[in-house]
């Protein structure tokens, strides 16, 4: 079978390949092309400490695939496809290069005066995390911009860590020896035992937004979040709640002792060009006038 790809050449499919498989291959092909054509974007979503004045802790870098009509394909729809092949490693490398470059620019502009001022979060996929040369690759990416890994927090899901806990332990230690921080992403959604948390060199535990959303209007899942925060603190980790959308959720998280928050209530992910304006508003203290914390 030959399918005309509109002048871009021909591709060949076995006659018994089903439609779904073909669509998947085409999707992957389009994604690969978008990456090569520099059509992907990184957006940045702020993370704030949950204390008076909501000081900025950093931004999480989030991939976006613009479709030219103002809409984006969300990463949940293309990361899993990329993860089925080496494409995820190219994507991951691009994200890292992009963050390193952006970070250098922000530092040159005096917007990120020190690493302590705020950090950038980078999501690592399971497949990236499995690679023995991961840390070398990440470090050389940042070295090309004259930077170390000390301004970065790497976010890794429970599932990715549990594929090979011993390797994960090593990777996390190496990352931290480079000054990076590490976070367990989507905490609570995996099936792993909690005992590994003791052994892993992690700084933050990011509580999945599904638990945060269950906090309001009716706080059913208080017990789960409360236990997660308690456990994290006992083990010396900070907690970050993702997906905070309402003042009720924020107030509830504050009562439960959560350390930091990220969500639409504070800000949606923004283009890199919007970050300087956001930093100015944070400096003036009017980044979130609708949010009032109790003393
Ligand atoms: P994640 O790492 O857990 O990222 C947080 C997700 O929550 C983001 O979704 C963010 O836009 C969304 N979010 C933040 N605040 C709110 C809120 O108040 N309400 C709701 N409903 N959602 C909120 P996004 O950007 O669609 O990304 C989805 C997932 O795709 C990420 O989940 C992460 O696992 C993956 N991803 C994104 N960028 C990358 C990347 O560069 N590399 C890798 N490997 N994965 C990425
Ligand atoms: Mg994340
Ligand atoms: Mg997350
Ligand atoms: Mg998530």
Automatic annotation (TrEMBL):
What name does the UniProt record give this protein? PAS domain S-box-containing protein/diguanylate cyclase (GGDEF)-like protein
What is the covered span of the full protein? 573 to 867 of 867
Q: Domain EAL spans what residues? A: 24-283
* Signal sequence range: none
